[in-house]
Write a structure and sequence with these properties.
Number of helices of chain A: 3
Largest sheet of chain A: 6 strands, mixed
Number of helices of chain B: 23
Largest interface: A-B, 36 and 34 residues
CATH topology of chain A: OB fold (Dihydrolipoamide Acetyltransferase, E2P)
Shape of chain A: globular
Number of strands of chain B: 21
Mean pLDDT of chain B: 78
Strand content of chain A: 35-45%
Mean pLDDT of chain A: 74
CATH superfamily of the largest domain in chain B: Histidine kinase-like ATPase, C-terminal domain
Helix content of chain A: 10-25%
Radius of gyration of chain A: 18 Å
CATH architecture of the largest domain in chain B: 2-Layer Sandwich
Radius of gyration of chain B: 39 Å
Number of strands of chain A: 11
Distance between the termini of chain B: 55 Å
Low-confidence stretches of chain B: 134-150, 245-250, 523-527
Strand order of the largest sheet of chain B: 6-8-9-11-10
Number of domains of chain A: 1
Helix content of chain B: 40-55%
Structural class of chain B: alpha+beta
Oligomer: heterodimer
Structural class of chain A: mainly beta
CATH class of the largest domain in chain B: Alpha Beta
Shape of chain B: elongated
CATH topology of the largest domain in chain B: Heat Shock Protein 90
Low-confidence stretches of chain A: 1-7, 153-183
């Protein structure tokens, strides 16, 4: 399947995050890996968990739970990493997304996809393509490209701050010219 | 899998040829007598014309045809090598390049330029044609031939009369006389067959003749002369050469060729005899005109020049095999993977501690190392490839500005990774432009200051350890520290009260938007150059430094690592993550005990053998959670002559491995410049010491 274009297929790979069902457009999914050790990269926003070694190449892994402000949970034997093709600033690259478990490949006709709701919480609807309805269940279809939208990376560069940055105290420290030691 | 079409191949080859042409033209500017270089230019233009015409690049073929005609005149010696001619050839070369580029959509043709060039080229050809027709110093053969119009033949006539020809009352001499009257002739009498007098029969003919005759008469006319003795002799009439109008410069046959044609002697024998021929040097010695030693040294000089020229050309040509960069890159990637897996094999085998497995792993390691070294070597190219283009740049630019500047290069054979060379191109061009524009003064100013009117820019490249050091030195005006300081204050880059060392003032030049040029030319002065240069050098993991002596000149030193792909690093760990610090920057490792660090709370300074060294706690800096161990280590590095320490948990050891880029997701994480896969499959992050240090200073 061509990795460059997002073809108009109606097939999606569904997966579970914190007992909710989400889905990715199957044309962007490359492979699904078992959970493997993730090396943390400093100074990255919280939802970027780190990088993994994929057959000698380095692939970043995001934790969508953090992106959606969902509570964290323990990894289980079903936890896996979904490797996808994405575009950041017109540069093609790979990205991995953590999932509690992978469900199935399903077909959802466009008629059965509704526009994303404005929930009003910090859940950013920018990266929800739509709400698919299947068997009386709602499936949140995610646009993985929007996870690293231009605006967000720009903000990171400018201020060095990033919403969702875990350690507020660290932020304060950065603003200080005199560094104080922290134990 | 042949995907490249012929047009692409033509363009690539044309690029190489145009490069050669430019080089050779600059060579003949220095040495107008360099026939070899002139021939090179001619051949290159001829090839472009030929292949271009064949593939349908008609405009290119038409233009190069005119250029080729001029070059032909040049190599015949009919045109003097003047500066105007050199400029014309260079501009024509540029025009050919733009013609070829425009076919791939990369640029437009300037029709006016083409017209101007064609007019100038045709003028040169016309001058010469007029010269030729008026020229009286042509071959006498030619002149004589013009008397015989329209056609003249050269015959070779062999006449061997029968033995009893006298008895029939024929006097062969009379026949010969008749032949002579037909035209210019050359008669050779063969009398070898005359026996000694005691056996000689007086009325027998032992003679034969070879006659070379130039005449417009036909061979029937000649046969008519011998009509009465036809049956009593051996007669051959061959047309050796035809001369028609306009055939002036057909090559005159060499003696050997004529003999071979006559079947008197075989080519083989000619070759052998020629080899027996004594060389000029030997003959001169024999005649005592010159002594042996002088000849020896002259020969040695000739051989040397030949060898160096060839070597020079080989180096510049760089490769005799054309491979696309993608193929090479994928090969390098694969080798990198192999290195990684081999590291895992070695590690595993040492754990297993099986002797057979260990020895196999060792062999694999040896082979992999060699394979990696060889592959890395393939990507290495001599820097001379870009040095040559600078010669042209200096020439053109200095004459545009009315300054006399000489470019001296050294170390053109120094090899660098191809990708590094490609990215060095623009920065070096910018730096050299600066030297020419701002550095070297005009000839009058130089004369006033007692300097030679021609300035010199000295460009050198040399290997130093794991680095290549490129130096750009000029004997110009040097950097004006005061002007820089003033401008910096004006732009708010520094405070008026700030005291800065000279070196620090020079560094300001690299700040974005800075430029002391009062006028902006399209050469330099926009202030966007130096900071881009510094950034590009930085992205190659190199460094750039300025030094200057006002009135005397400026020295720019670039230091670049030999290859982008592999790093020699010091493996350290903090918490359970591994990091790598570039080994080239590391000086020493020191312990840091808990007590000590508690004592010096807030200062982050360490006393190392009397010297104060500041340090950065990487745990804090990189936001690493967890408890510090009681015993930590400080890795002291030297970055641009500043010593700084980094606190880590453990220092594991040296590690050499392939660098993996992190990708666009991590574009803005300055402190981490890449990652590498360790032997056990784990990832270690490569830290950028420069970035870490800069951050501290804020």
């Amino acid at each position: 399947m061509a990795a460059t274009e997002i073809l108009e297929t109606n097939k999606y790979l569904s997966f579970k995050l914190d007992n909710e069902i989400y889905a990715f457009d199957i044309s962007q999914v490359r492979e699904v890996l078992d959970y493997t050790e993730i090396t943390k990269v400093p100074k990255m926003p919280v939802f970027v968990k780190g990088i993994i070694n994929l057959r000698g190449g380095v692939v970043p892994v995001v934790d969508l739970r953090k992106k959606f402000d969902l509570p964290t949970s323990e990894n289980t034997v079903n936890t896996c990493i979904i490797i996808m093709d994405i575009s950041i600033d017109n540069e093609k690259t790979l990205i991995g997304a953590l999932a509690d478990s992978v469900q199935e490949v399903m077909t959802i006709e466009p008629d059965f996809i509704e526009p994303p709701p404005k929930i009003g919480t910090r859940l950013d609807t920018e990266f929800i393509r739509g709400m698919g309805k299947k068997n009386d269940k709602f499936i949140i279809i995610i646009d993985i490209d929007k996870v690293f939208s231009v605006g967000e990376t720009y903000m990171l560069q400018e201020t060095g701050e990033y919403r969702g940055f875990e350690d507020a105290s660290q932020e304060d420290m950065d603003k200080n010219i005199d560094k104080k030691e922290i134990n | 899998m042949n995907e490249t079409n012929f047009n692409d191949i033509f363009r690539q080859e044309a690029d190489e040829l145009l490069f050669e042409i430019e080089e050779a033209v600059l060579e003949i500017e220095e040495n107008p007598d360099d026939i070899e270089a002139i021939n090179r230019i001619f051949r290159a233009v001829h090839t472009i014309k030929g292949s271009g015409g064949m593939l349908g690049f008609t405009k290119v073929a038409q233009f190069t045809h005119v250029l080729e005609t001029v070059l032909d005149r040049l190599r015949e010696g009919d045109l003097p090598v003047t500066k105007d001619l050199i400029n014309l050839i260079l501009r024509s070369r540029d025009h050919v390049k733009s013609l070829i580029d425009s076919t791939s959509g990369a640029g437009a043709i300037d029709p006016d330029q083409e017209e101007i060039l064609l007019t100038q080229l045709n003028d040169l050809i016309q001058i010469n044609e007029d010269k030729n027709t008026r020229n009286d110093s042509g071959n006498t053969m030619e002149e004589n031939l013009s008397k015989y119009s329209p056609k003249a033949f050269i015959y070779r006539i062999t006449f061997k009369p029968g033995k009893d020809i006298f008895r029939s009352g024929t006097d062969p001499g009379l026949l010969i006389e008749e032949l002579k009257s037909f035209g210019d002739h050359n008669i050779i009498l063969h009398y070898k067959n005359i026996p000694s007098i005691d056996v000689l029969i007086p009325d027998e003919c032992y003679l034969s003749w070879d006659i070379i005759l130039t005449t417009s008469r036909t061979d029937d006319d000649i046969k008519d002369i011998f009509i009465f003795v036809e049956d009593n002799c051996e007669l051959t009439i061959d047309i050796v050469d035809e001369l028609t109008e306009g055939d002036d410069d057909k090559e005159i046959k060499k003696i050997g060729e004529i003999l071979v044609e006559r079947q008197v002697i075989s080519e083989e024998e000619i070759k052998n005899t020629l080899n027996d021929q004594k060389r000029l040097g030997e003959l001169l010695i024999e005649k005592n005109k010159v002594d042996y030693d002088t000849i020896e040294t002259a020969l040695a000089e000739q051989a040397q020049i030949k060898k160096t020229r060839e070597k020079h050309r080989e180096e510049i040509k760089a490769s005799s095999l054309r491979v696309t960069s993608e193929k090479l890159d994928s090969l390098v990637d694969l080798v990198g993977e192999l290195v990684t897996v081999q590291a895992r094999l070695s590690q595993f085998s040492s754990i297993m501690d099986h002797s057979e497995l260990l020895s196999i792993a060792e062999e694999v390691e040896k082979l992999t190392t060699e394979l990696r070294d060889n592959t890395m070597d393939i990507r290495m190219m001599p820097i001379g490839t870009i040095f040559s283009k600078f010669k042209r740049l200096v020439r053109d630019l200095s004459s545009d500005l009315g300054k006399g500047i000489n470019l001296v290069t050294e170390g053109a054979e120094t090899e660098l990774d191809k990708t590094v060379i490609d990215r060095l191109d623009d920065p070096l061009v910018h730096l050299i432009r600066n030297c020419i524009d701002h550095g070297i003064e005009t000839p009058s100013v130089r004369k006033e200051n007692g300097k030679p009117e021609t300035g010199t820019i000295y460009l050198s490249a040399v290997h130093k350890g794991a680095y290549v050091v490129i130096t750009i030195k000029d004997d110009g005006a040097g950097l004006n520290a005061e002007a820089i300081r003033e401008k910096a204050i004006e732009k708010g880059i520094i405070q008026r009260e700030a005291t800065l060392s000279e070196k620090q003032i020079y560094e300001i030049i690299f700040a974005p938007g800075f430029s002391t040029a009062t006028t902006v030319s399209n050469i330099s002065g926009r202030g966007v150059g130096m900071d881009v240069v510094k950034r590009t050098i930085g992205s190659l993991r190199g460094s750039i430094e300025l030094d200057s002596l006002p009135g005397k000149g400026t020295v720019i030193t670039l230091k670049l690592p030999l290859t982008l792909a592999i790093i020699n690093g010091l493996l350290v760990s903090i918490a359970d993550t591994s990091y790598i610090l570039p080994l080239a920057t590391v000086e020493e490792c020191v312990e840091l005990t808990r007590d000590y660090s508690d004592q010096s709370k807030g200062t982050n300074l360490l006393n190392v053998r009397g010297e104060i060294v500041p340090y950065i706690r990487l745990r804090d800096h990189l936001n690493i959670k967890g408890k510090k161990p009681s015993l930590e280590h400080i890795v002291i590095t030297d970055v641009e002559d500043k010593r700084i320490g980094f606190v880590v948990d453990k220092v594991i050891g040296g590690h050499q491995t392939v660098i993996k880029a992190l990708g666009p997701v991590f574009k803005y994480v300055k402190e981490v410049s890449g990652a590498t896969i360790l032997g056990d499959g784990k990832i270690a992050l490569i830290l950028d010491v420069n970035a870490l240090m800069l951050f501290k200073e804020h």
